[in-house]
Each structure stands twice: as structure tokens, then as C-alpha cells.
């Protein structure tokens, strides 16, 4: 078993998703050989990246832990249907553990990041009571100009 820590700010595909490039991902790799004869690994990651909430647009820590099993494959065998596990491409027989950890971390993230309580965190945009009542009292008619044009024809 091999353990590594990688700074979140040094992971290029993750960098744009972070509110702040702080923290690290702890990755564990347990190597083995599959029944198909390919080398592989069980990969687990643990991190608390600071993401941007899509509701309140503020940073929040998202604790995650994830794991999966992968088989290593070269370019020509990367499309093999006999694989028991997910295939991860190798270049010249070498595996980038940093890229493997980054891939696992990206797969563990939700599609839309939201803090635990986006509606009640106090940072989500809200309408002042005067603004809301003013808008509610006015009936908007966006196509009224078209109605006038139809009357002229």
C-alpha cells in the first residue's frame, strides 16, 4: 500500500472549481493484479476542498471520501471489453499517481456544489420586503408592443 498527499491547488483540472486553492487530498493506492492479468489498484481519496456554493456564491468546505478499483491499460488495450474494473491509461508503462488521485477526486464531487444550508446560511441573495411587494403589485406585459403592432395591420 502506498499513501500520498497532493496539494489541491496543484491539481490542474480541479483548480477552477475551488474557491481557494487550500488543502490537500490524501490518496491511498493498493496495487494488485486482476484476473485478466492486468496490473491495477484500489484507489481511495480523502479531502475537504473549499468549493463555491452555487446558491449563495460563498466558499464552503466539502468533506469527501471516495474509492474505486482501476486497471491500468496502454493506449491499444484501453478499449478492452474484458476489463473487470474501470480502465486507467498509462503512458510508456508509467502511471501518474497524482492524475489518478485527481480523477478519483473529481468523480467524487457533486455536479452542483451547495453548502449545507444555502437558503438559511444568511449569505444567499434575498429581496427586501419593499422590493418584492412593488414587483408583485405591477403586472408586467412584455408583449404589449406586439399587440399594438397587430392592431395597426
Topology:
Blueprint lengths: L1 E6 L4 H4 L2 E3 L3 E10 L5 E9 L2 E3 L6 E3 L2 E10 L12 E4 L7 H12 L20 H9 L6 H9 L1
Parallel strand pairs: 7-8
Antiparallel strand pairs: 1-3, 2-5, 3-4, 4-7, 5-6
Keyphrases for this structure?
153 residues, alpha+beta, 5-stranded mixed β-sheet, 3-stranded antiparallel β-sheet, 4 helices, elongated
Describe the structure in your own words.
This protein has 153 residues and is an alpha+beta fold. It has one domain. Helices cover 22% and strands 31% of the residues. The strands form two sheets. The chain has a five-stranded mixed sheet with strand order 1-3-4-7-8, with helices on one face. A three-stranded antiparallel sheet has the order 2-5-6, with no helix packed on it. The radius of gyration is 25 Å and the shape is elongated.
The amount of beta strand, in percent, is 25-35%
Q: For the largest beta sheet, what order do the strands appear in spatially?
A: 1-3-4-7-8
Output the number of helix runs: 4
| Category by helix and strand content | alpha+beta
Q: What is the mean pLDDT?
A: 81
Principal-axes geometry comes out as elongated
Question: Concise description?
Answer:
The protein is α+β, with helices and mostly antiparallel strands. 22% of the residues lie in helices and 31% in strands.
Amino acid at each position: 500500500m502506498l499513501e500520498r498527499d497532493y496539494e489541491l491547488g496543484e491539481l490542474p483540472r480541479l483548480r477552477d472549481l475551488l474557491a481557494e486553492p487550500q488543502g490537500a487530498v490524501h490518496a491511498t493506492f493498493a496495487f494488485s493484479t486482476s484476473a485478466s492479468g492486468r496490473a491495477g489498484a484500489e484507489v481511495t481519496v480523502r479531502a475537504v476542498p473549499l468549493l463555491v456554493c452555487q446558491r449563495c456564491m460563498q466558499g464552503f468546505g466539502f468533506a469527501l471520501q471516495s474509492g474505486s478499483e482501476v486497471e491500468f491499460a496502454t493506449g491499444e488495450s484501453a478499449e478492452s471489453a474484458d476489463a473487470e474494473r474501470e480502465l486507467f491509461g498509462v503512458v510508456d508503462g508509467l502511471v501518474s499517481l497524482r492524475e489518478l488521485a485527481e480523477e478519483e477526486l473529481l468523480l467524487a464531487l457533486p455536479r452542483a456544489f451547495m453548502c449545507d444550508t444555502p437558503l438559511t446560511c444568511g449569505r444567499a441573495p434575498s429581496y427586501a420586503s419593499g422590493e418584492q411587494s412593488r414587483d408583485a403589485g405591477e403586472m408586467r406585459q412584455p408583449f404589449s408592443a406586439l399587440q399594438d403592432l397587430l392592431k395597426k395591420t
